[in-house]
Amino acid sequence: MELGILAGGIMIGLAALAAGIGNGILFSRYLEGITRQPEAQSRLFGQAMITLGLVEALPIIAIAFGILLLFRVIGV
To answer: Where are the membrane-spanning stretches (predicted)?
Structure first.
C-alpha cells in the first residue's frame, strides 16, 4: 500500500470528524443561547450561520487536498 493513499484516506476521515465535532459544538452553543435569551434568536441565528461557514471551510479544503493526494498517487 502506498503511503500517499493512506495519508489521503486519513486526511479525508479526520476532516469529516472535525466537521462533525465543530458543528456539534456550534449548534449546542446556539441552542444554549436561545434558551437563555429567546428574544435574541434572530441575531444568534445569523452569527451561527456565519460561524457554520467558517467551521465547514477547513474540512472542505482538507477533503479536496485528500482527494488530490489520492488521485495523484493512483496516477490519474
So the answer is: 6-27, 48-74
